[in-house]
Each structure stands twice: as C-alpha cells, then as structure tokens.
C-alpha cells in the first residue's frame, strides 16, 4: 500500500492551530509533548504500511492467503484463539485508532480548560466520535464471530472486518456500518424518560430519526422476545435484570410511572448509561461494552435474558437482508 497521511486536512489544521497557540502562550513543554505524540503515531502508521494488504492475496510457504482463507480461519478459530488469529495489521490498526483518540483527548485537555474554546472542543469530539464508531463496529462484528453458525453471514462479517481493517486508520474513510452509526448517534442524543417503562417515548425518539431499514428492524425486533429485550436495554440504558426489577417495583407499589432519579434510587445506582445529555464520546463505548458483558454472562451462564446486544441483532438482520451491502466510503 502506498503511504498516505492518516490525518484529514481538518485534523492537520487543528494540530497546527493548537501547536501555534502553545508557542504563543510559551507552553513549550506542552508543545513538545504533543509534537512527540504526533511523531510516534506517524511512525506507527509507517509500520502499518509495511504489512501486506488484508484484502490482497499473498503466499506464505507456498500457501495462499486471502480474504477467503481469512473467513475460514476466523470462523474456525476466533472463539477460542481470540486476538491470536487476527491479522497483525488489524491489531496495529486498532492501536493507531486508540492512539488517535488519545491524542484528540490530549488536544482537548491542552486547549479546552475551563470551558475555553468551545469550537475546538466540538471539533475534537466530532473526530473522536468517528474513530469510536469504527472501533464499536469492529467490536460488534467480532462478537458475532463467537456464536455464528450461518456461513453466509459469517462470510459477510469477515469481509466487512477485512475492509474495515484495511482502511480504518484513514480519517477520510467511513469505516463503520452507517445504519449502526445512525442508531448510536440517535440514541446518544435521546434521553429516556422511563415513565411507564413501556418505552413509548423512547421508541418514538429512535424511530423518527432513523432511515427505513432501521425502522424495519425496530418493527421486526418488537416481535421477537429476546430482540425486544435487547432493544429495551439499548433504549433505557439498563440491563434486562434491572429493568425487570424496576418493572416489578412499579407493580408492587401500584405506581403508574417513574423518573430517572427514582430508578437510580430503586437500583441503588449513582448513574445510568446515556440517561442524560453527555458530551464525552467514550460514553457510547462504555454503554455498549456494559451491555455486551451482560449478554455474554447470560449466554455462558445459561441465564434468562438476551444473549446478544441490540447491535449484534441489528447487524445480523442487516447481513441477512438480501439487498444489503456494506461498503467503505
């Protein structure tokens, strides 16, 4: 692969602006620290370019290696060998994405103290969100590899991963599933009201802001018990068990509705994921990761409740949709 910049023109302008500001303010230690980290990331990118393309064909000891062999290996080994069966280039790319997220947070802390520079803060968080959507998409696809018996979907999942790994270090590429990204961003902006816990407000808030394919899935999910439960977790920010506990509390106490503060008191929690407006992009990752761990615990512990997250169910739906095709833009 021909070396090209891992930063967009907008990102480069931001870094130049911040570095210039640090020099003007005489903050030379901060200037050198930021410059050092940028150099380190560019060196990592140089290593990334040295590896052969994941979607290209190559030979090792006379044996062919291509996307088809990757499909076979991931389908056969991933559930047991995890990261050790992943291409080195994929792991290096993920390190780069995490590094890009961390350096953006560094820019934020260097320039946005005490609510200064709201324009820079908004720009930084927008960059971080785009990186996170790629990381989240990869996490969802890898999670599906653990429990996937449908060979057609397995091939689609693996090919989507290969394409993401090949391009995701470049800021000018959209390396996440657009429909999934739309669902995440819509949910991030939608604060649940809880109320009767029937989800009327929450369903409408999500439904009216997504495209037709997403609406089709939401309608479908409400007809399948486990997928309904996973969707409720996504809408309310609570795991299946806690939602049922609060619902039983309402019945037992003959209450018609409940608000967020009351839910926290009933559960003895200090906070609920995405239950209030939040600027921190990483809250999206925490939100998914928590539900993923809960679903895995149910699966391996044979406990009642959804064994896949809303996101995994949604991607399964997309990839079994005859006309759906995921492409890097």
How would you explain this protein's 3D organization?
- By secondary structure, the chain is mostly helical.
- It has 2 domains: 9-167, no CATH class; 178-320, no CATH class.
- 66% of the residues lie in helices and 2% in strands.
- The chain has 14 helices and 2 strands, in the order ααββαααααααααααα.
- It has helices spanning 9-24, 28-50, 67-81, 88-111, 118-146, 151-167, 178-189, 200-207, 212-221, 225-236, 240-252, 260-267, 282-301, 310-320, and strands at residues 58-60, 63-65.
- A two-stranded antiparallel ribbon has the order 1-2.
- A hairpin with a 2-residue loop joins β1 (58-60) and β2 (63-65).
- α3 packs across α6 (151-167).
- The radius of gyration is 22 Å and the shape is globular.
- The model has no long low-confidence stretch (mean pLDDT 90).
State the domain count.
2
Fraction in helix: 55-70%
Radius of gyration: 22 Å
End-to-end CA span: 18 Å
Number of strands: 2
Strand order of the largest sheet: 1-2
Strand content: under 5%
Compute the number of helices.
14
Low-confidence stretches: none
Question: Biggest sheet, open or closed, and with what strands and sense?
Answer: 2 strands, antiparallel
């Amino acid at each position: 692969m021909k070396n090209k910049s891992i930063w967009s023109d907008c990102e480069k302008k931001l870094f130049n602006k911040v570095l210039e500001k640090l020099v003007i303010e005489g903050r030379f230690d901060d200037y050198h620290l930021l410059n050092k980290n940028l150099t380190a990331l560019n060196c990592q990118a140089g290593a990334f370019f040295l590896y052969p393309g994941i979607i290209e064909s190559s030979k090792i000891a006379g044996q062919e290696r291509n996307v088809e062999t990757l499909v076979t290996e991931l389908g056969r080994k991933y559930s047991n060998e995890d990261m050790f069966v992943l291409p080195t280039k994929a792991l290096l790319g993920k390190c780069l994405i995490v590094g890009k997220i961390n350096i953006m947070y560094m820019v934020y802390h260097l320039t946005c103290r005490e609510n200064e520079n709201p324009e820079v803060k908004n720009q930084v968080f927008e960059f971080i969100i785009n990186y996170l959507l790629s990381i989240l998409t990869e996490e969802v696809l890898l999670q599906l590899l653990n429990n996937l018996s449908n060979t057609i979907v397995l091939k689609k999942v693996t090919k989507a991963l290969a394409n993401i790994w090949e391009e995701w270090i470049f800021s000018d590429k959209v390396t996440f599933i657009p429909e999934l990204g739309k669902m995440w961003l819509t949910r991030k902006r939608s604060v649940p009201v809880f109320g009767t816990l029937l989800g009327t407000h929450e369903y409408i808030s999500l439904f009216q802001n997504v495209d037709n394919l997403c609406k089709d899935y939401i309608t479908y999910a409400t007809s399948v018990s486990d997928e309904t439960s996973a969707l409720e977790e996504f809408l309310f920010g609570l795991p299946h068990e806690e939602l049922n506990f609060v619902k039983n509390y309402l019945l037992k106490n003959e209450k018609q509705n409940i608000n967020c503060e009351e839910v926290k008191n009933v559960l003895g929690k200090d906070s609920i994921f995405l239950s209030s407006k939040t600027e921190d992009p990483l809250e999206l990752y925490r939100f998914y990761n928590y539900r993923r761990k809960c679903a895995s615990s149910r699966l391996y512990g044979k406990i009642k409740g959804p064994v896949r997250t809303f996101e995994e169910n949604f991607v399964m739906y997309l990839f079994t949709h005859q006309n759906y095709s995921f492409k890097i833009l």
